[in-house]
Amino acid sequence: MEEIKKIDKRESVRVVTANELILLEDIAKLSLHERKLFYIAVAQCRMTDKDFYEYETSASELAEMWEQDPSNLYDSIHKASTELMKVVIEQKNGKNYKLRHIFEECDYSEGRLKFKLHKEMTDLLLGNNRSFSKPLMWDFMRMRSPYSIAIWHLMQKEMNSAKPYGVVQLEFELSLEELRRVTGTENKLKQVGAFKSRVLDKALREIKENALVAISYTNVKRGREIVGFRFLARSLFGPKNPEEMTLRERQQARYGQLIRAKANGSITAEEQEEYTRLSQILYQRNIEDYTELYGYYEDK
Predict the structure, then answer these.
(1) Which end of the chain is less enclosed by CB atoms within 10 A, N or C?
(2) Residues 222-254 pLDDT 10s
(3) Where are the domains positioned within the chain?
(4) Radius of gyration of the chain measured on its C-alpha atoms
């Protein structure tokens, strides 16, 4: 009999997906609870896994993660499970296409939900043979809008899954077309002002509250037409004087700068060596922190 595993909900758990998954039309159609349940399932995957396992959680556990009243969560879980079992995502390449189911099973009994991702999703969720992003699962769990989840996931792709540290600020651009695509609003809120107020601005407020990153933006125009936005992300903890920062904070801030240089292709050979060294130092400290806190550390 196949082992049923309990979900891992540590703060270090990440949602690791191929970047191409973020922009798929069928993912953009997922509702709030469908997205959250899907992301919980994805976050259980380990980089060393070859196949998907069956996982189990409870209604009370989901209620706690989503900050919802457990007494009226059953309908939301049932609807999300039912729809996820129906969802088929389509990848197109010219006239070629590939169809995949997302979930293989969702079983609910006596207040407990068992689920398993479909084997057809293996190459999009397991292994590192594609460009991928890995935002933290907990950044999404208490968001109230599927738009916010979609936009933060897209932003994390552009930010190379990093967050700004200390004095470091991260800059990136997204086209209006990309933002509409991931939120499924290509044919909704046609006026840019309506899109900004009802989708983008709301998402940035939820990102600030849940991911602890403050993001501002300016319009990118082609003539008079707004075609995208230039974003500036900073830590909610505010800029600090480097002299007032601990060694670890300074290392994290420098590592954030090197991540951007690497992502932009402007990193030098010396900076690459520094990047590798800091990556190893911070990785080892994470292991020590979580071992002290949980008594063990499972690589993600």
Answers:
(1) N
(2) 999 999 999 999 886 666 655 566 667 777 777
(3) 4-141, 146-235, 242-294
(4) 20
